[in-house]
Specification:
alpha/beta, Arc Repressor Mutant, subunit A, four-stranded antiparallel beta sheet
C-alpha cells in the first residue's frame, strides 16, 4: 500500500509537479488548495494520511495557524508528521513553525529529490512509531535518568510518571543524545545522524528541537540540567540521577 500524502498548497502548478513526482516515487497524493479543505480532510475519520506537506501562505489562513490547530487537536491528526513549505526560507518562519510542532521545513525553490528524502525519513520514523511492538513493561528497553524515563520500544517519554508528548523527530533526537549521555555532540553530528545528509552550517533548526525537548523534560528550560549547551561545541545529555 502506498503512503498517502496530503498537500495543502494553493500554487496549482507546483502542486501538479509535486503530485506527478511523488506518485512516481511511491506516494498516493491528495491535493487541496485551502486550509479549510485540508483541515476538513484531516478531521474526517474515513480519511487517513501518513504525511502532510503544508504551505506557509494560503488564501484562507496562515500555515503556522494551521499547524497550531493540528497539534492542538486531540485525535489522530495531532501526530501526523508535518513538513512546512516556506516561500523564501525566512529563518523566523522556520523557527516558529518548528516551535508549533512542524517536523521539518523546505524552502522554495527546492530540489524535489531533497523533499523526497525528507518525506521518506519522516515516514520511516512514523512507521517505526506505529509498528513498535507492545513489549511488556518488565521486558521493555528503558533508559532511566532520575525522574526521567524513556521507553524505547513503545517510543514514549515520561517525567515523574507523566507522559510528555514529542514528535517522532524529537523522540529520535532525545534517544540519540540519551544513548550518548555524557558525550558532547555537535549540531552537525546530530543533524547528520538524524537526516542522513550533509547539514547546512547555517541551519539552526536543531536548536529549536532542543528547545522543544527542554520544554518537555526540564523543570526550568531556562536553567537546563538535563540537556546542557556546551558553548562552541554542541550539546550534552547529562548523566544525572537526582533530578
Amino acid at each position: 500500500m502506498h503512503p498517502r500524502l496530503l498537500i495543502i498548497e494553493d500554487d496549482q502548478r507546483l502542486a501538479d509537479m509535486l503530485r506527478t513526482y511523488l506518485q512516481q516515487n511511491g506516494f498516493e497524493v491528495v491535493h487541496v488548495t485551502s486550509a479549510g479543505q485540508g483541515l476538513a480532510l484531516l478531521r474526517d475519520p474515513s480519511q487517513a494520511f501518513a504525511l502532510l506537506l503544508l504551505d506557509l501562505m494560503l488564501p484562507d489562513a496562515f500555515g503556522l495557524d494551521v499547524c497550531r490547530q493540528i497539534r492542538a487537536h486531540t485525535g489522530n491528526m495531532a501526530t501526523i508528521p508535518i513538513v512546512m513549505l516556506t516561500a523564501k526560507g525566512d529563518s523566523m518562519d522556520k523557527v516558529i513553525g518548528l516551535e508549533l510542532g512542524a517536523d521539518d521545513y523546505v524552502a522554495k525553490p527546492f530540489e524535489p529529490r531533497e523533499l523526497l528524502a525528507r518525506l521518506r525519513a519522516l515516514l520511516r520514523r512514523q512507521q517505526q512509531l506505529q509498528t513498535s511492538p507492545q513489549t511488556e513493561p518488565e521486558l521493555a528497553r528503558i533508559l532511566r535518568f532520575g525522574r526521567l524515563e524513556i521507553r524505547l520500544d513503545a517510543r514514549r517519554l515520561y517525567l515523574d510518571g507523566q507522559e510528555r508528548g514529542l514528535t517522532a523527530y524529537q523522540f529520535d533526537l532525545l534517544v540519540l543524545m540519551a544513548e550518548s549521555a555524557g558525550r558532547v555532540l555537535s549540531r552537525e553530528h546530530l543533524m547528520d545522524a538524524l537526516k542522513g545528509e550533509t547539514p547546512d552550517a547555517f541551519d539552526r533548526s536543531i536548536d529549536v528541537h532542543i528547545a522543544r525537548l527542554r520544554a518537555a523534560i526540564e523543570d526550568d528550560p531556562k536553567q537546563a540540567r538535563r540537556i546542557i549547551t556546551v558553548r562552541g561545541a554542541g550539546y550534552v545529555f547529562a548523566k544525572l540521577q537526582d533530578v
